[in-house]
């Protein structure tokens, strides 16, 4: 199963739509700070959470199970993600999450901790601490394998990010 994970699009609904159209993912996760009306978000199977810059009333956090993997989705501003991942790790443990998706820092991050994967897709418009804007594609495989690939909004692969993981 192919999952598009994005965050921090900050009002660039047209750019988000272009990425969604190009990737043709089975499911889309937006980790907040979409900063536009909900109606302007792509009309696809999607989880979207509220970031610190969002004005629309959507959930602060969401849980979804895709291909047998339990995802916890949050923006991250309420969990100090710019400092450390301990608060998210405790939530993931408590909720039985396999993959934790978050945004807020605009910095792409993908790391396994035990049987959990922590994933920040970065920002598609305003990278911070990284050279290019990014989003992530997560391929959920059998045998608990997860492949993560990062891309720039123009579709160019970012080979230095992502990897293959066994959860």
Termini separation comes to: 15 Å
Low-confidence stretches: none
Major sheet characteristics: 6 strands, mixed
Structural class: mainly beta
Tally of strands: 11
| CATH 4th-level superfamily | Metallo-dependent phosphatases
CATH architecture assignment:
4-Layer Sandwich
Shape: globular
Quickly name the level 1 CATH class: Alpha Beta
- Rg calc: 14 Å
The chain-level mean pLDDT equals 96
The ordered string of helix (H) and strand (E) elements is EHEEEEHEEEEEE
The CATH topology turns out to be Purple Acid Phosphatase, chain A, domain 2
Task: Supply the number of helical segments.
Answer: 2
What does this molecule look like?
The protein has 167 residues and is mainly beta. The chain is 13% helix and 36% strand. The protein has a single domain (2-166), classed as 4-Layer Sandwich (Purple Acid Phosphatase, chain A, domain 2), CATH 3.60.21. The chain contains two helices and eleven strands. Strands 3-2-1-9-10-11 form a six-stranded mixed beta sheet, with helices on one face. A five-stranded mixed beta sheet has the order 4-5-6-8-7, with helices on one face. The chain is globular and about 35 Å long.
């Amino acid at each position: 199963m192919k999952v598009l994970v994005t965050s921090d699009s900050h009002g660039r609904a047209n750019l988000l739509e272009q990425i969604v159209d190009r990737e043709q993912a089975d499911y889309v996760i937006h980790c907040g700070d979409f900063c536009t009306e909900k109606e302007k978000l792509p009309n696809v199977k999607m989880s979207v959470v509220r970031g610190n810059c969002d004005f629309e009333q959507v959930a602060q956090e969401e849980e979804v199970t895709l291909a047998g993997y339990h995802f916890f989705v949050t923006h991250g501003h309420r969990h100090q993600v710019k400092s450390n991942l301990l608060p998210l790790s405790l939530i993931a443990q408590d909720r039985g999450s396999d993959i934790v998706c978050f945004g807020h820092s605009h910095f792409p991050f993908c790391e396994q901790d035990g049987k959990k994967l922590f994933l920040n897709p970065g920002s598609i418009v305003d990278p911070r601490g990284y050279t290019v804007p990014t989003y992530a594609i997560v391929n959920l495989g059998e045998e608990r394998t997860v492949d993560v690939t990062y891309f720039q909004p123009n579709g160019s692969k970012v080979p230095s990010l992502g990897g293959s993981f066994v959860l």
